[in-house]
Design brief:
With 372 residues, the chain is mostly beta strands. The protein has 3 domains: 2-146, no CATH class; 147-241, Sandwich (Immunoglobulin-like); 243-372. Helix content is 5%, strand content 45%. It has 3 helices and 25 strands. The chain has helices spanning 57-61, 318-326, 349-352; strands spanning 2-5, 11-15, 19-27, 38-43, 51-55, 84-92, 95-96, 103-107, 110-114, 125-131, 149-151, 158-162, 169-175, 181-187, 190-197, 205-211, 221-227, 230-240, 248-253, 259-264, 268-280, 295-309, 330-332, 335-339, 358-363. A 7-stranded antiparallel β-sheet has the order 20-19-23-24-25-22-21, covered by helices on one side. The longest helix has 9 residues, at 318-326. The chain is globular and about 85 Å long.
């Protein structure tokens, strides 16, 4: 199983002396379509250049949509549109190149396929999922992960939350093949283990929402994600007490394609912007009514902006700010917004001492409802 970030290109390369064809199967949920969603054919570039490349990422994104970040504990999964399942089948010179070695593995709740090219950058056949993340340029061509458990978050960041709240989680893509997946919460009073997926759970791909802290605990937590008792990811979580300001929770899709949480703890400032068109009016008569005015505003509407401050954060939070500025989907306290800021300094403790980031947002709707 290959997990790829669909906001960056991902190429399927096929070699054929005359032509090549790529069939792309796309689906949300657990039911694979009977026939392909798209089929692409290219002639060989030349007699000596016989490799054709197909970028599948734009087509994956058509099936991905992230709207609601609210945690639902039963079950702890996100909407099926948060990721897309895909399968590619390659044809060379009119022949299915996978027919000689493709094997079918029947799972408890559907059909899954595997072969000796699974996960290959230039394989004939590939089965995987796409998420709404992106890759950094320096990582190179066709980045992705073949791990059965993929965290859609950065484990190097200490995740802060408002003390006595329980509204943050981490997304895990789990290709469940029968292992026992658990979450161990390490607190000052001990360790509590919670089963995420038992070995007997339905074998399929899950996008799980794992709470970053246990309800009732206010001390710092360490969350360990384990597969069959072996730790595969560790997240550090810390509460923050903010007695003066009203913190604002920012939820956005990060570079990994999962929901990321960033709390703006400090000062905030809101403003309203109005748009209107002014026209001069014709008088109702020669002896006009002076109370009607000579001009009037039409098509009045407005929007609201807010400027937020993170408060003092660690130097490595610059990566989170980058993800926020680059995100297509951003919420403030579950309300959709656009990021108005188009740049931010990358701050360091050596130069800036205490690091605070100030970000401007615009609410993604008009003050007056004009939806028709």
């Amino acid at each position: 199983m290959k997990t790829i970030n669909a906001r960056s290109p991902y190429f399927i390369s096929i070699t054929g002396s005359t032509n090549t064809t790529l069939q792309l199967f796309l689906w949300n949920g657990s039911t694979e379509p009977v026939s392909h969603t798209y089929s692409f054919t290219k002639a060989a570039p030349s007699a000596t250049q016989t490799e054709s490349n197909y970028d599948i990422s734009p087509y994956l994104r058509e099936y991905i949509e992230n709207i609601n970040s609210t945690y639902d504990p039963t079950p702890a999964t996100e909407s099926s549109t948060s990721f897309v399942n895909f399968k590619t089948v390659a044809f060379s010179n009119g022949t299915n190149r996978t027919s000689a070695f493709k094997a079918r593995v029947i799972a408890d709740s559907g059909t899954y396929e595997a072969d000796n090219c699974l996960g290959s950058f230039m394989g004939d056949y590939l089965l995987g999922i796409g998420v709404d993340g992106y890759n950094n340029y320096l990582g190179g061509y066709n980045q992705g992960s073949t791990a059965d458990i993929v965290a859609l978050a950065d484990t190097s960041k200490v995740i802060t939350y408002l003390e006595n709240t329980d509204n943050k989680y981490v997304n895990l893509i789990i290709n469940h093949t029968g292992t026992n997946v658990t979450a161990d919460y390490v607190t000052s009073v001990g360790t509590t283990s919670v089963t995420i997926l038992s070995s007997s759970a339905t074998k399929k791909v899950y996008n799980m929402k794992i709470p970053l802290k246990l309800v009732g605990f206010t001390s710092s937590n360490v969350l360990n994600i384990k597969s069959n008792g072996t730790t595969v990811y560790t997240f550090n979580v810390a509460p923050v007490c903010e007695p003066k300001y009203t913190p604002v929770l920012c939820q956005f899709i990060n570079r990994y394609g999962g929901w990321q949480f960033l709390t703006f703890f400090k000062a905030q400032a809101s403003s309203i912007m109005i748009e209107k068109i002014k026209h001069n009016l014709l008088p109702d008569s020669v002896n006009y009514n002076a109370k009607r005015g000579q001009s009037k505003s039409f098509n009045i509407n407005g929007s609201q902006k807010i400027v937020l401050n993170t408060g003092f954060v660690d130097p490595n939070y610059s990566d989170l700010i980058q993800d926020l500025l680059m995100s297509n989907t951003v919420l403030l306290d579950n309300v959709p917004v656009l990021v108005s800021s188009t740049q931010s300094d990358i701050k360091t403790s050596l130069k800036d001492k205490n690091i605070n980031y100030e970000i401007e947002f615009e609410y993604a709707f008009n003050l007056k409802n004009t939806v028709i």
